[in-house]
Write a structure and sequence with these properties.
The radius of gyration is 24 Å and the shape is globular. It contains twelve helices and 20 strands.
Length: 413
């Protein structure tokens, strides 16, 4: 049986949480479906406490008995995993097909090629669509970046049954080998006008094993805008990356979203020459998602590449990304960055600011440095004082003291 069948057999209520199952943490009286369980492997994480483990550990916590520990059989799990793999491969194939059939941005439609054989009204329709795309990119300052990224355009429906609309098709590539793994479709500004198809996180099994015993590498896909090699910028969105690239002229990678920022392409970055500056140009979100992702991703790169200088920088205003700024992008990028320090043994004067998943950012404004610590490490540091060990909020977040919140607003975030 698979995890959902095990839960059903024991009367445990479940809900869907994206592609995961959600159950209550009954062992601690939780009633908000905070425990997310992978429907195939049975691996789980408690979004409130940060605790996680394999299915056997979850069974023990739920008190289901010895028989449930072996209820998730390997054959059923492997069949489900293969089905998931085939579904993902089909979506990637569809994404690549859409991209290949779309028109390159920056090259006008040829009457003897793309428009050949079309009626006058069809030609007018496609020319209007092309003009719409170019006007949108010009208004966002992203035309040159779209050309450099190899973006294309076509007309696609946002949802099944809706009429097609002009749409930019951005490539998502495995940044280690350049292979296309998906696309991002953009109809306009805002998250509601963007849809991914295929994969945007490259997951590879690095060693054999079953379930939790398999070793995997999870790194973001995206695209790279080539430029001066002395600095490499990483940004969340397409237009955000375009704004950074336009302002700096340096190599800029688009990782598409917060998931991409906190799972950066470490192997690709590791090919940079020693001394190269790696700058995470994160979004300054009201809910701190962009700041958290950039800090966690930068910490991973700094830990894996001690010869590289890694830093984070954010726009000045809450709710703003780099494409929203009306000027001063280059000045902010070069003057407001905080270095991310991976070496964790030296305790220094700073304030610990809660992030997510049990991590804390520790800001040293005097040295313009920031470090990322796990909650267990912070608990062992009395220098940070009582406010660091904060209460858990009802949604699984940390309650931030007013003092910590002021540090967060005035510090790197």
């Amino acid at each position: 049986m698979l995890p959902d069948q095990v839960f059903a057999a024991h009367g445990i209520q479940t809900r869907r949480a994206g592609s995961w199952l959600a159950i209550n943490a009954s062992w601690r009286g939780g009633e908000n479906f905070s425990v997310h369980v992978h429907p195939v492997s049975g691996g789980w994480v408690d979004k409130v406490s940060g605790e996680k483990g394999n299915f056997s550990k979850l069974v023990k916590k739920l008190g289901l008995g010895e028989e449930a520990k072996i209820a998730v059989d390997k054959d059923a799990v492997e069949q489900a995993r293969q089905a998931s793999y085939l579904e993902r491969a089909a979506k990637q194939k569809k994404a690549i097909s859409i991209y290949e059939q779309a028109y390159p941005i920056g090259r006008a439609l040829d009457p003897q090629v793309e428009l050949h054989g079309k009626t006058a009204s069809q030609k007018a329709y496609w020319r209007d669509a092309e003009a719409h795309i170019m006007n949108y990119l010009e208004s966002r300052g992203g035309k040159d970046a779209a050309i450099a990224a190899g973006a294309r355009w076509t007309t696609l429906s946002k949802r099944e049954g809706q009429r097609p609309e002009p749409c930019i098709v951005w490539p998502i590539r495995d940044l280690e080998n350049g292979k296309m793994i998906g696309i991002q479709r953009e109809w306009g500004r805002g998250h509601e006008n963007k849809r991914m198809l295929g994969s945007h996180i490259a997951t590879k099994v690095e060693s054999g094993g079953f379930g939790s015993h398999a070793t995997t590498k999870v790194e973001a896909g995206g695209f790279v805008l080539q430029g001066q090699p002395n600095k490499v910028y990483l940004a969340e969105g397409m237009q955000t990356a375009a704004a950074v690239w336009r302002a700096t002229g340096c190599i800029t990678a688009c990782l598409y979203d917060t998931s991409g920022m906190q799972n950066p392409p470490i192997k690709a970055i590791s090919r940079a020459r020693p001394g190269t500056e790696i700058v995470f140009a994160g979004d300054r979100d009201a809910n701190r998602a962009g700041q958290t992702a950039a800090l966690l991703g930068a910490s991973k790169v700094a830990s894996a590449n001690p010869d590289l200088k890694v830093s984070v920088v954010f726009p000045p205003n809450i709710g703003e990304d780099w494409a929203d700024m009306q000027g001063g992008v280059l000045d902010r990028l070069t003057s407001a960055a905080f270095t991310v320090v991976a070496e964790r043994r030296r305790i220094f004067s700073g304030k610990a600011v809660p992030l997510d998943k049990g991590n804390f950012a520790v800001v040293d404004k005097c040295r313009r440095e920031v470090r990322v610590f796990g909650s267990k490490e912070v608990d062992r540091m009395p220098e940070f004082g009582k406010p660091v060990v904060v209460a858990r909020g009802p949604r699984g977040g940390y309650r931030v003291t007013q003092e910590q919140d002021r540090v967060l607003q005035r510090g790197v975030t």
